[in-house]
Structure formats: structure tokens, C-alpha cells
Write a structure and sequence with these properties.
Layout: H1 2-14, H2 16-27, H3 37-50, E1 54-57, E2 63-67, E3 72-79, E4 100-101, E5 104-106, H4 110-130, E6 136-143, H5 152-159, E7 167-170, E8 178-179, E9 181-182, E10 184-193, H6 208-222, E11 228-229, E12 233-234, E13 236-245, E14 255-264, H7 270-280, E15 286-290, E16 292-296, E17 302-306, E18 308-309, E19 312-313, H8 319-332, E20 338-339, H9 347-350, E21 358-360, E22 375-377, H10 378-394
Length: about 400
């Protein structure tokens, strides 16, 4: 294998500028969720230029590139939508310049996470040049709508496209470490129903805001007592939004609701998280609901899923992790750091729902995700393009 590793490293370095320029082209195209059409067409063009055997865009708008026809399937996933830029005054450069300078590619999406797919396209080019002929099909997926609803794209791929790989690499940023899990999450809304009356005699009514406020303070308390996992960390819950309504500003509020951001550690489930909140509001005229996401993709297709994104982790001795460690050591002559993401990824459906073995390996540092002045080292892109190609030989 040493000869293969050495050749892959040479080719990844040879195509350094190719990878950086491809990423630059992707960054110059703004692509927030549900508005990815132009960037997907560019990614498709790049895959075709790299020599992929087949490239298509599915009904939801995911770009799917294939190399080979082997029985086993490895998919390398990266989402092509990004968040918006926020306050432009916080940026020191044009977020959509895609400038390549001082060893970095600059702009929104370089880290989160167009850099991963750009590197994966180069991996495909490397595999074609090497005449890759193992009994393995290598897919690169440029997925959509992840920022709005992580995992929705893979729900579509598995259930509608019938693409269920044997192994997946997520190219979300890992700072070139190997990640094997992250906490799950869910979005819960709690609605309180009061009784309105004139504000001059509030005792005649039942104020929904007070009901919500008392419940909110109890939720603050349970955050401190949620489960802890040695690897993934602690579960959390926080109120991220509160709304209320009344017939007028001279009336008692007859309606209130708050939105919960619930992060789930190992052993916590949708049912257990809902039960915690239902216990708090027991005896109150309140309803606890897990939210549902349904929006139109840029293709015009309307698709959705419940906003419950399961916790997942892969054991460190699992073959997909071991293969990643061996590929890393073979390429870079050192041991990788094995860790986890702080945020959520498409892994919530890939492994959380469908049980597909998954690791993460991506260029860039996740601290720059959703942050101003986002940039990725070109050296990270080179390392990632080498890793994905090497992994195809190791798994």
C-alpha cells in the first residue's frame, strides 16, 4: 500500500491549484438553502470535467457523481448550501470573492462546507488516473438544504433515490481529524393557552405569559441535570424564542409559546426529551410539539421531515474508523486525532436513522463555520483529496 499512498500524495499535490480553483468557483456562487441551483450546476460540471463515470442531479437537487460499479458503495458527502454572511461589516474581505492568497481560499462556504466536495472531486480525478478497479463504487454527493434541515437530503437519497451506501465519509470540517459522532438535536415548541380579560382587572383572566415564564424557569433548572456521555458530552436545552398574543395591549395575554433548542447526548431520545417537558407543564393548559420541516427545494419539489435529529456515534474500533486511521497514517506518517463535532451534520440521518457506518474528515476548522472571515488552508484541501482517495483503497 505504501506505493499507492505515495502516488496519491503526489497527485493530490499536483492538483493543488486545480482543487483550490474549483473551490474558488464554488464560493463565488451564493447558495443559501433552497437556492443552490447555480452552484450545483457548477459542481456537476466539475465532476464531469474530472472524468466521473456518471453525474446526475436528483429530484431534490443533490448532485451525485459515480466512479466504478463495485458491489460495495462508499459515498463522500458534503452539503453545498451555506448560511448567509450576516453583518457584512464584520468581514475583512468580500465573502464571495473566492480569492486564493497566502495559502488560503477565502469566502463563505470555504469551511462550511464547499471545501469538502471540492476536495472530493479531486479524489475522483485521482482514482480515475490510478485506474481504480476495486469491487467498490465511489460516490461523491453534493447535498442540499442541510443548513435548513440537516439530514433531509440523505432522507431523500435513501428513501427516494434508493442510494444506501455501505460506508460514508462526511466532509464537514474536522481540522483534518477523524470524527466519529456528535450529539443529536431536536426543535420543540411549547404552546400555552390562557384566558383573556381587560388589563385593568387581570385577576379575571389567566395570563399565558406567566404560565410560560414559570415553565421556562423550570426548564432552566433541568438543563443542569441532563445526561452526560464521556465522549459526546452533556445534553442541553435552552429557550431560543418566546412569543405571546392578546386581543390588545390593554388585555391579559391568552397565548404564549416558546421554542426549545434541545441537544441530545447518548441515551437521550425524542420520547425522553418530550417527556421531560410534558412533566413540567403537567396540569397546565399547554401543548408540547416536535416541529416539522417542509419546504420547496430549488427543483420545485416539496419535501420534509420531523425536526428530530438523532444522536450518533461510531465505536473507535469499528472498521470504518480503523480504515480511516490506517489511511491517515499511510498518507501522513502520524496518528490522527479521533474526536467529534460540536454541531450537527447529515450524520443524523445517515447513521442516526439508517445505521450506515460513517466517519467525518474534512478540511478547515469548525470554529469558522457560520463565522465572518471564513477561509480554508489549501494544504487542508490537498490532504482531504488524498484521504478520500486513499480511503477507497482501505475500506
Amino acid at each position: 500500500m505504501n506505493e499507492i499512498f505515495n502516488t496519491i500524495n503526489v497527485l493530490a499535490e499536483k492538483y493543488k491549484d486545480y482543487t483550490a480553483n474549483n473551490l474558488s468557483k464554488l464560493v463565488r456562487i451564493k447558495s443559501t438553502s433552497m437556492h443552490e441551483k447555480d452552484v450545483q450546476l457548477e459542481l456537476k460540471r466539475q465532476m464531469e470535467e474530472a472524468g466521473f463515470d456518471e453525474v446526475k442531479i436528483d429530484g431534490l437537487g443533490n448532485v451525485i457523481g459515480r466512479i466504478g460499479n463495485g458491489k460495495r458503495i462508499l459515498a463522500v458527502d458534503g452539503h453545498m448550501d451555506t448560511v448567509d454572511v450576516g453583518n457584512i461589516d464584520n468581514w475583512n474581505f468580500d465573502p464571495f470573492s473566492g480569492e486564493i492568497k497566502d495559502g488560503f481560499v477565502y469566502g463563505r462556504g470555504t469551511v462550511d462546507q464547499k471545501g469538502g466536495p471540492a476536495a472530493a472531486v479531486t479524489s475522483g480525478k485521482i482514482l480515475k488516473e490510478l485506474g481504480f478497479n476495486r469491487d467498490l463504487t465511489f460516490y461523491v454527493v453534493g447535498s442540499v438544504m442541510e443548513e435548513d434541515c440537516d439530514g433531509l437530503c440523505w432522507k431523500y437519497l435513501v428513501e427516494k433515490e434508493k442510494l444506501k451506501p455501505d460506508f460514508v465519509i462526511s466532509t464537514e470540517p474536522t481540522n483534518l481529524n477523524i470524527y466519529r459522532g456528535h450529539r443529536g438535536r431536536m426543535e420543540i415548541v411549547v404552546k400555552f393557552r390562557g384566558v383573556s380579560c381587560h388589563g385593568s382587572a387581570p385577576e379575571r383572566g389567566k395570563n399565558a405569559i406567566y404560565m410560560a415564564a414559570r415553565a421556562a424557569l423550570e426548564i432552566e433548572k433541568i438543563n443542569e441535570s441532563l445526561k452526560q456521555d464521556e465522549f459526546l458530552g452533556k445534553g442541553t436545552v435552552t429557550i431560543s424564542e418566546i412569543k405571546s398574543g392578546s386581543p390588545s395591549l390593554c388585555a391579559v395575554a391568552d397565548y404564549a409559546q416558546f421554542h426549545l433548542d434541545r441537544r441530545l447526548t447518548w441515551g437521550e431520545t425524542k420520547e425522553s426529551a418530550v417527556a421531560e417537558i410534558e412533566k413540567i407543564v403537567k396540569g397546565i393548559d399547554a401543548k408540547v410539539e416536535v416541529l416539522y420541516y417542509e419546504e420547496k427545494a430549488y427543483t420545485g419539489l416539496k419535501y420534509g421531515m420531523e425536526k428530530y435529529y438523532p444522536t450518533w456515534k461510531i465505536e473507535e474500533n469499528h472498521p470504518v474508523v480503523v480504515a480511516g486511521v490506517e489511511a491517515f497514517k499511510g498518507l501522513f506518517n502520524k496518528k490522527p486525532l479521533i474526536d467529534k463535532w460540536t454541531f450537527s451534520t447529515n450524520g443524523v440521518t445517515i447513521n442516526g436513522y439508517y445505521g450506515i457506518p460513517l466517519i467525518g474528515f474534512g478540511p478547515g476548522n469548525e470554529v469558522l463555520a457560520h463565522a465572518p472571515n471564513e477561509k480554508v488552508p489549501v494544504s487542508d484541501l490537498v490532504a482531504a483529496s488524498a484521504f478520500y482517495a486513499a480511503y477507497a483503497y482501505m475500506i
